Amino acid sequence: MRYTNKLNPFQHVVKKPKRLETRLIIWVTGLCVLQAVLFGALVYQITAESLHSHMGDKALSLATSIASRDDVQNALQTKQGLDELNTQIEHIRELTAASFIVIGDRNTRRIVHPDSDKLGKPMVGGDSKAALRGERYVSIAKGSLGESIRGKVPVLSEQGEVIGLVSVGFLVQSIEPLIRARSAEIMLWGLLLVGLSILAAVYIGQRVRNAIFGLQPDEIARLFSEQDAILNTVRSGIIALDPEGNVRNLNQRACEILGKPTSCSCIHQPLKLEDLLPEHAEFLMHNQQRPIVGFELFAAEKRIVLSRYALQVQGEADGILLSMRPADELEYLSQQLTKVQAFAELLRVQTHDYSNKLNLIGALIQMGQTDQAIELIGQESKGPQAQIHHLLERIQDPVLAGLLVGKYHKARELNVILELNPDSLLGSITRKDMLERVVSILGNLIDNAIEAAIRASDTRTPKVRVTVDETSKTLLFDVEDSGLGLGDDKDVVFTPQYSSKSGAEHGIGLYLVKTNLDSCRGSLEIGESDLMGARLSVYIPK
Questions:
Q1: Measuring CA to CA, which residue among 472, 486, 465 is closest to residue 528?
Q2: Which of 409, 368, 26, 449 minimizes the C-alpha distance to 205?
Q3: How many Å is the Cα radius of gyration of the chain?
Q4: What is the residue-wise DSSP string for 88-101?
Q5: pLDDT (average), residues 150-171
Q6: What angle is formed at CA 44 by the lines to CA 41 and CA 46, rounded to 5 degrees?
Q7: 3-state secondary structure string across 460-475
Q8: Which of 403, 393, 388 has the alpha carbon at shortest distance from 442?
Q9: Strands 474-481 and 463-470, how do they pair?
Q10: pLDDT band for position 123 (50/70/90)?
Q11: pTM check: above 0.70
Q12: What's the CA gap between 400 and 443, in Å, rounded?
């Protein structure tokens, strides 16, 4: 059995789409050809009308000149000297290149005509009546020689009576060579214009191709659709900004997080960062090259974890990218991570510390100084353990107690004395959102106090004192240090630009304190401590 392959008549042949540069060349060239044709037709029309008007004015002027001649007036009145008049008029016609000069009497019978056989016969065209009424005009009519442009002028006697008329004409067919000559010149310039248009189209096509990295329109459309789908699929809010803070792009998730209608992701009107995050716009636009990772702020009545990255295009700064997620989505993971990190830090500090102590005890035992070894063991068990035991007794909330224990060991490793005021007393904090903000506020204040105490360690013993207390309506925290104080302008320390330390990771701690205080309607007072440094007092309504 023989099998043959037959083309399915219903099968469509898929044509390869034209490239963008090819389309541009075709479109631009076609447009220029169309413009050249339309322009040529327009110029041809204007040229023809201009030449017709010029010939009409010339005919009318020549007819006026002939009608004012005395010999013409005498010939019309006396019918004498017609042969000589015909000769003179024919000479004038040849000099002026007129197609004909005809003189007729009141009955429109020719007394002068370039064709002697037509003398004495009526003038043809039917456009002479107005001239016999004394009017001067230009007309277009078909006479015995063909269609022509005519200048008609009456011949007047000395008494002002119409005794005849003069008709000077230029055949329309005699004007066509002039029009064609000018049209040829126009066509030449039109072809030159089309050639230049093709070159310009090729150049524009190459520039466009390079500007869009060789991508074709369907590829660009697909990439745009993919980008839009990706932006609206991720669960993080994304906002792209230019260096001036104008929103270039944002996804629907960002609109949801910030409590804006999702239609704002399709930007039909200009948006600025101030429209989305008015309270934090100045901070986020400051020092755009510095990355910020995991920055927590309060906006749209919720806590948001935000990160900021600089955008670089071809090696130049071109704005920033903000990514954000609600803090409650990351809350469980962050809490677990915080506990693990705190536990690991505590173990590391204790391991390092106890390793040194064990080495010292071992050396004392080898040297036979057993009494001193026993004394050292006793001191170690009484000092820090007593401090930790006291802290756990006074602070009933396990999260805050864990925070203070972690800060205690951190300060101890940095050779800073951190003590809890013996009068401190604090019960459990039942509100989960408030507990998180209190941990952030107290943790940042203690970290800043430890660093301030270290900076002044050359002149005094570095020390930090923490006091926690509460009333029926308010939580009270005091953090004092032995540092150098905050100076005269105390308001600037809570701006995001402020930092007394160097490095990209600094300058945010006190701003976080202010942000969290604002979110829970708390207040802060700055004073001087008896430790010779600063005292920061925090009041948070329950």
A1: 486
A2: 26
A3: 51
A4: HHHHHHHHHT-SEE
A5: 89
A6: 110
A7: CCCEEEEEEEECCCEE
A8: 403
A9: antiparallel
A10: confident
A11: no
A12: 9
